[in-house]
Amino acid sequence: MGMDKLSVLLVFVPADSGVDGPALLGESGRPGFLQGLKNGVLKNIIKRAQFAIPPLSLMILGSIDEPGIEQHICDLRFETFPLDRHWDLIGISVQTGAVKPAFELSALLREKGFRVVLGGPYVTVFPERCRAHGDVLVIGEADDIWRAVLEDLRHDRLQKEYRVERLPDLSSCRGVKKEALDIQHYFTTNVVQTTRGCPYSCDFCNVHVINGHRIRHRDIAGVVREVEGFLEKDRRIFFFLDDTINADDEYAEKLFRELIPFNIKWVGQATTRLGENGRLLDVFSRSGCGALLVGIESLAEESNRVHHKFHNPVDRQAECIRNIRDAGICVYGSFIYGLDEDTLEQTGAIEAFLDETGIDVPGINLLRPIPGTEVFNRLADEQRLLHDRNNHDAFRFSWGQEMLYRPKKIPIETFIPSYTDLTKRIFTVKRAIQRAANAPTLRTAVLMFNLFYVHMYNLSRKDLMQQMEKLGG
Asked: Among candidates 84, 136, 137, which has minimal Cα distance to 115?
C-alpha cells in the first residue's frame, strides 16, 4: 500500500429492520440475558439465511482504477466503521429504507472532519433532501461519473454535485473486482448484473423510476469473462441481480447458452411469462438455474391492473409456475396482499394457489409504498398513508411488521387479522418440511428459507397485532 495514495472508503449502510434483520416494533426496555442471547443468535442466522450478498454497486465503483487512489469497501452489516485511520473521501450509498442511519453516519463523519459523498437510489430520486447531509452528491447511476469524482479528488477540485446526464452504456467493458471484499462474510460473492432498466411500469416499484424503461444490455462476452474470473475466487452459487432476467428472451437465451459449459448454479428474478418459453426454460435449466423469484403479486386480475402490472395474466400463472418447476427450477413466489382491488377472499385464493402450484418458497408481503413511486403519491393524495408523506424515514422495508397505509376495500382492523391468520396457516414447520421434500432442487436452501420464514412471520404477527391495538382496533 503506497503511502502517497489517497484513500477512499465506500460504505454500505443497512436498514435497522426488514431484510437486514428483525426488529420488533413494540419492544421496550432492555431484553433479559436469554432473550438478548437469542436475539444475537437469530440476527446472525438471519444474515446467513437471507443469503447475504455484497453490494454490487459498490463493487462496481470500487473496481474503477484511478492512479494515486486506493478504494476500500466497508459493509456495515458485518464490519465496524474503521474510524482509526485517515480517509480522504468517504462514499455512502443511501438506500431507500435506510435514509436515517445513512444521514446519521454522514453527520458523525463530517463532525470528525471527513469529506462525505452521498449517492445511491435515494439521492438519485430526492437530491434536494440530501444536499444538507453530504459534502458531495452523486445523482444517478455512477458507473461512468465516479471516475470524474476520483480525478477531481486527486486534483483537489471536488464539486458539490455530480449529475449523470445519460444512463450508462452497459455494453462498454467494465470489469468488476472483488478483492476489497471479505468473502467469508457472504453466502456468495458471485453477484452479476447483465441488464438494467425495466420495460414495465408497476406503480409500487421504483426500478423504472431509477433505471429507466429501456433495457440496457452488457456485452455477453464480457459477462462470460466475468463469470469465469469470479470462479477463480469463489465457486459458490451465482446471483444474477437483473430485476427481470427474462426481460429480453433472445439476449437471455444467448447469454445462458454460453454459460452452460461452466457448470455453475445460479438464481435470479424472472416473470412467470418464462413458463411459456420452453426453449429458454431448457437453456436456464441446462445452465444451472436452481431458483427464480417471480412476482405474482395479487391473484385478483383487477388489483394487478389498477397497479399497472399487466405482464402476468392471472389465468396463466399456475401453468407457468408448474412449467418452471417441471424444468427443475425452484420458484420463490412473491405475493402482495392488500392491493387496491383485493378482498378478504384473496387469503383463500393464495392458499389454494400454493397447493395447486407447489411453490417452493412463498413470500406473503404487505404493500410497501416507496417514496418516489406512483403508488406512494397516490396513497398520499388519497390520505391513506399512515405516516406523514414527508417523513420518508417512516416508510421502511420492514418484514411485514407494520402497516404503512389503509387498504382500499378492507378495513384495517379486519385486514390485519386476515393477514396474520394467513401467514400463521402458510408458515408452519410441517409445511416447511413438505416444501423442501417436494422441491425440484436446492432442498436444503428451500428448507432453511421456509424455517426462517416460520420465525420471521411469527415476529410479524406480534408486531402487527400491537400496531392494531395502537390504532384502536
From this structure: 136
Please give the Cα distance from 327 to 337 (Å, whole number). Answer: 28
DSSP string, 384-450: -BSS-TT-GGGS---SS-S--B--SSS-HHHHHHHHHHHHHHHS-HHHHHHHHHH-SS-HHHHHHHH
Residue 117's pLDDT is 98
Instruction: Say what the pLDDT of residue 19 is.
Output: 43
Q: How far is the C-alpha of 342 from the C-alpha of 457, rounded, in Å? A: 21
Quote the distance between the C-alpha of residue 7 and its chain's center: 29
Give the pLDDT confidence score for residue 217 in this predicted structure: 94
* CA atoms lying within 13 Å on the CB side of residue 204: 23
The cell for 364 is: 406473503
User: 416 lies in a domain?
Assistant: yes
Q: What is the pLDDT of residue 343?
A: 96
* Three-state secondary-structure class, residue 333: strand
| Residue 66 in domain | yes
Closest C-alpha among 270, 418, 431, 410 to residue 349: 418
The kind and range of the H/E element at 39 are helix 33-49
C-alpha cell at 40: 444475537
Domain containing 119: what range?
6-163
Please tell me whether residues 312 and 385 are part of one structural domain: yes
pLDDT tens-place string over residues 72-101: 999 998 899 999 999 999 999 999 888 999
CATH number for the domain spanning 283: value is 3.80.30.20
Shared domain check, 353 and 282: yes
Cell of 129: 433532501
Half-sphere exposure of 175 (CA within 13 A, CB side): 9
User: What does the block give as the cell for 202?
Assistant: 408497476
**In this predicted structure, what is the pLDDT of residue 24?**
35
pLDDT < 70: residue spans in the chain: 1-3, 16-51, 310-312, 473
**Helix/strand/coil percentages in the chain, nearest 5:** 45, 15, 40
- Asked whether residue 443 falls in the same domain as residue 306, the answer is yes
pTM: 0.90
Q: Angle at Cα 61 formed by Cα 57 and Cα 63, nearest 5°?
A: 115
Q: Are 103 and 118 in contact (CB under 8 A)?
A: no
Residue 250: per-residue pLDDT: 97
Look at the block and give the residue holding cell 411485514: 400
Number of domains in the chain: 2
Give the pairing type, strands 216-217 and 195-196.
antiparallel
